[in-house]
């Protein structure tokens, strides 16, 4: 049996149903992310796990125990919020000790645990600081230590990095993941940032309108998106209009005839369909396996550092892909004619 399970959870506020039958089973020690646009119900599901919201219907169990009707403080949950959630009138040590005092831990034990947590987040030297004397990243590390101090069974993080600068965001997410692994704590992490979710999760729940559209490992979600929404939300995607020809596997796309790996499933009555391909499936270099050539015009060339992003118009369709940078690379000129090569097996219907 999984460590944390949510079964057919529904949440209605007034007449507005915002969680519409949500199922998830999280294994012990797993790091699962909820990924989805603002308003899709991520926080509401997290708050139901924590006990701050009661499901309208459905069931939640932790470690085999039905907690659906249990108060938050009885659930052994640690929670970290977006930002500014530390007690401003307490220093770092006081903030970390807060939950321990409530749990009735003695003075010596509390102090030892606070020291241990400070070591874990690498802030032993800042125990006496107050929140306003620290950076946002340091404050969030303290918030993490405060959440972990009472040894919760499940850690819940609600967009803990979204108020931070890009660089801190990346380094702190690695640190959170590292601490999570070391403690082996079952974790649910909420984010609207697909790169963040892809980079640190064991599994991702892609949420859309109060439901889980797809649950899978980052590579399953990226390489085999099960819905059009997931395909568009995770990673970047080129979507090309195509037309079915007489044979069930042949389509015309951007003026080029393409032989698909499988018969077309999604064409409308007029034979129109959408074909998607990831940017990395396109290249200016022909190679074995890249059996489709799209001729067109280079519309823009953006230097991005380690890669150069090329946008092209091919027969009225827009495509975008990256070239790896190297010191001797000569990128194509804007306005030049070029050919983008792709493999038909990398194209999928949306
Ligand atoms: P997310 O975290 O994915 O941005 P939320 O779970 O916060 O989404 O919200 C989902 C929907 O539920 C939104 O439309 C929001 O306005 C609504 N909602 C959330 N909490 C409440 C509440 N306490 N009362 C009424 N509506 C709410
Ligand atoms: Mg939210």
From TrEMBL:
<dbReference type="GO" id="GO:0043190">
    <property type="term" value="C:ATP-binding cassette (ABC) transporter complex"/>
</dbReference>
<dbReference type="GO" id="GO:0022857">
    <property type="term" value="F:transmembrane transporter activity"/>
</dbReference>
<dbReference type="GO" id="GO:0016887">
    <property type="term" value="F:ATP hydrolysis activity"/>
</dbReference>
<dbReference type="InterPro" id="IPR050093">
    <property type="entry name" value="ABC_SmlMolc_Importer"/>
</dbReference>
<dbReference type="InterPro" id="IPR027417">
    <property type="entry name" value="P-loop_NTPase"/>
</dbReference>
<dbReference type="Pfam" id="PF08402">
    <property type="entry name" value="TOBE_2"/>
</dbReference>
<dbReference type="InterPro" id="IPR003593">
    <property type="entry name" value="AAA+_ATPase"/>
</dbReference>
<keyword id="KW-0067">ATP-binding</keyword>
<keyword id="KW-0547">Nucleotide-binding</keyword>
<dbReference type="InterPro" id="IPR008995">
    <property type="entry name" value="Mo/tungstate-bd_C_term_dom"/>
</dbReference>
<dbReference type="GO" id="GO:0015697">
    <property type="term" value="P:quaternary ammonium group transport"/>
</dbReference>
<dbReference type="Pfam" id="PF00005">
    <property type="entry name" value="ABC_tran"/>
</dbReference>
<dbReference type="GO" id="GO:0005524">
    <property type="term" value="F:ATP binding"/>
</dbReference>
<keyword id="KW-0813">Transport</keyword>
<protein>
    <submittedName>
        <fullName>ABC transporter ATP-binding protein</fullName>
    </submittedName>
</protein>
<dbReference type="InterPro" id="IPR003439">
    <property type="entry name" value="ABC_transporter-like_ATP-bd"/>
</dbReference>
<dbReference type="InterPro" id="IPR017871">
    <property type="entry name" value="ABC_transporter-like_CS"/>
</dbReference>
<feature type="domain" description="ABC transporter">
    <location>
        <begin position="4"/>
        <end position="234"/>
    </location>
</feature>
<dbReference type="InterPro" id="IPR013611">
    <property type="entry name" value="Transp-assoc_OB_typ2"/>
</dbReference>
């Amino acid at each position: 049996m999984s460590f944390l399970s949510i079964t057919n959870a529904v949440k209605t506020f007034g007449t507005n149903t915002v969680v519409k039958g949500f199922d998830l089973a999280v294994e012990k020690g797993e790091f699962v992310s909820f990924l989805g646009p603002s308003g899709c119900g991520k926080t509401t599901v997290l708050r139901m796990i924590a006990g701050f919201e009661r499901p309208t219907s459905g069931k939640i169990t932790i470690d085999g125990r039905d907690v659906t009707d249990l108060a938050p403080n009885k659930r052994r949950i640690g929670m970290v919020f977006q930002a500014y959630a530390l007690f401003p009138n307490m220093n770092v040590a006081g903030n970390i000790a807060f939950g321990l005092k409530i749990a009735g831990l003695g003075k010596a034990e509390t102090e030892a645990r606070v020291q241990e947590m400070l070591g874990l987040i690498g802030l032993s030297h800042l125990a006496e600081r107050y929140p306003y004397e620290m950076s946002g990243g340091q404050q969030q590390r303290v918030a993490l230590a405060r959440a972990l101090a009472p040894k919760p069974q499940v850690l819940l993080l609600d967009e803990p990095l979204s108020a931070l600068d890009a660089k801190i965001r990346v380094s702190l997410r690695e640190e959170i993941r590292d601490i999570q692994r070391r403690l082996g704590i079952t974790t649910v992490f909420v984010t609207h940032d697909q790169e963040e979710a892809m980079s640190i999760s064991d599994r991702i729940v892609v949420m859309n309108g109060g439901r889980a559209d797809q649950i899978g490992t980052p590579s399953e979600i990226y390489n085999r998106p099960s819905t059009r929404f997931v395909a568009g939300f995770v990673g970047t995607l080129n979507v090309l209009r195509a037309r079915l020809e007489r044979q069930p596997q042949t389509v015309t796309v951007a003026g080029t005839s393409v032989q698909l790996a499988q018969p077309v499933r999604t064409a409308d009555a007029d034979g129109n369909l959408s074909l998607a391909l990831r940017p990395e499936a396109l290249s200016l270099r022909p190679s074995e396996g890249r059996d489709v050539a799209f001729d067109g015009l280079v519309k823009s060339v953006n230097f991005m550092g380690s890669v150069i992003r090329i946008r092209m118009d091919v027969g009225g369709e827009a495509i975008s892909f990256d070239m790896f940078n190297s010191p001797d690379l000569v990128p194509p000129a804007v306005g030049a004619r070029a050919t983008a090569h792709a493999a038909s097996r990398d194209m999928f219907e949306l």
